[in-house]
Design brief:
Layout lengths: L2 H9 L2 H34 L10 E4 L11 E3 L1 H33 L11 H17 L1
Antiparallel strand pairs: 1-2
């Protein structure tokens, strides 16, 4: 089998298309979640206080004046803490969004089933015949 034919079969399978759609929708959903956190959640968190870990660091080695071009070396743990807090907030917001989605799905799925259709004319007649035979025998 030629490589072009194999590639064509691979690329045109439904799974590849489903995956591509999932990635595109996932990227769009990521934008929604990012905006939700940045524009709605973080301003509320900011009301609690002006905490900024971004510049927190520990000096590991001071600039050596005898060595040309040497610089201070810092362990920038504040940036890591900021990213970690943002991740935790994002994870919690995603948890709430998925929880709401699942609850909505449960409510939608829990709707009572549609009423069964009325019996056909034939079913009505057969029921009447059954009832008449039962009365005759009893």
């Amino acid at each position: 089998m030629g490589i072009v034919k194999e590639f064509k079969e691979f690329a045109l399978k439904g799974n590849v298309l489903d995956l591509a759609v999932g990635v595109i929708i996932g990227g769009a959903f990521g934008g929604i979640v990012t905006s939700l956190i940045k524009d709605l959640v973080m301003p509320v968190v900011g009301l609690a206080g002006k905490v900024n870990f971004a510049d927190a660091s520990i000096l590991l080695r001071s600039k050596d004046k005898e060595i040309a071009g040497s610089e201070d070396i810092f362990l920038n743990y504040g940036s890591f803490i900021t990213v970690l807090i943002n991740f935790l907030i994002m994870a919690f917001v995603l948890f709430l969004v998925i929880k709401l989605f699942n609850e909505a799905r449960r409510r939608f799925d829990a709707q009572p089933p549609a009423t069964p259709p009325a019996p056909t004319r034939e079913e009505v007649l057969l029921t009447e015949i059954r009832d008449l035979l039962a009365r005759k025998q009893g």
